[in-house]
Amino acid sequence: MPTSARPISSRSSRPTGACDPRGRTAGASLIARGFTLIEILVVLVIISIVISFAVLNIGVTGRDGALDEESRRIEGLMGLLQERAVLEGRDFGLLVEPASYQFVVYRARRQRWENFDEEREFRRRELPAGLVFELQLDSRRVIIKPRDAKVKSDAATAGPQIIIAASGEGTPFKLVLQRTGTHNRAILNADATGKLTVESSDKASDRLTNRS
Q1: Is 31 exposed, middle or buried (0-12, 13-18, 19+ CB in 10 A)?
Q2: 106: left (phi over 0), alpha (psi -120 to 50) or beta
Q3: What are the angstrom distances between the C-alpha of 75 and each of 44, 124, 196, 199?
């Protein structure tokens, strides 16, 4: 009597060591979740190291990056206008406000100072939060008045304290950028010949601290 063939179990056809699809999905999810946690930990460690270096750098050098950057920007813009004043035969100026500054140009036909904002780099600029100006002319501190917000005109609200003449000469001045509530400061100096020098925040602040 012929023996009836037994049905082949589906389990016997599965390769040895194979995992249940659900188990494999769960394992992959755990691995992915584990890598994500590791990546987060690595990022946190990197951030803490960067912050530590930044704090250490400020403590060692005493530099104030915002002060140095702004003083260098003003120096560069004034240097450009000094060259243009001679080449174009025009007088330019720097109008300083308590926490902002504006470059102006003298319009001979209209006989008045006007805002020189026809080129974007010479537009009116606000200082970063916490920074203010102090201006000295002839070794005397000048009272800096805020801008009259009611004036809506191309004309400058007042004549500039600092002039860049077409002859190449200029107003001797000492422009101090300082951070309120601290001794941090950077200084921009100019003599009558228009020579500009910048005293970085670490040197200017150290000199002020030693003097006090």
Answers
A1: exposed
A2: beta
A3: 39, 15, 7, 11
d(CA 127, CA 164): 22
Integer Cα distance of 106 and 92 in angstroms = 6
Where do runs of H (alpha helix) occur along the chain?
A: 21-61, 65-88, 201-211
62: alpha, beta or left? (left if phi > 0; alpha if psi -120 to 50): left
d(CA 127, CA 25): 56
- pTM score: 0.66
Q: Where are the domains of the chain?
A: 21-61, 65-211
Q: What is the distance between the terminal CA atoms of the chain, rounded to a whole angstrom? A: 117
Residue 145 to residue 151: CA distance in whole angstroms: 14
CA-to-CA distance for 151 and 55, rounded, in angstroms?
Answer: 43
Which residue is it, tokens 């990022």? 43
53 Cβ contact partners less than 8 Å away, ≥ 6 residues apart: none
CATH class assigned to 65-211: alpha beta
What is the C-alpha to C-alpha distance for residues 11 and 22, in angstroms, rounded to an integer? 16
Q: Which two tokens stand for residue 117?
A: 């904002």
Walking along the chain (212 residues) 10 residues at a time, the average pLDDT comes out as 50 48 50 65 80 52 84 96 95 96 93 89 93 94 83 67 93 96 94 92 67 54
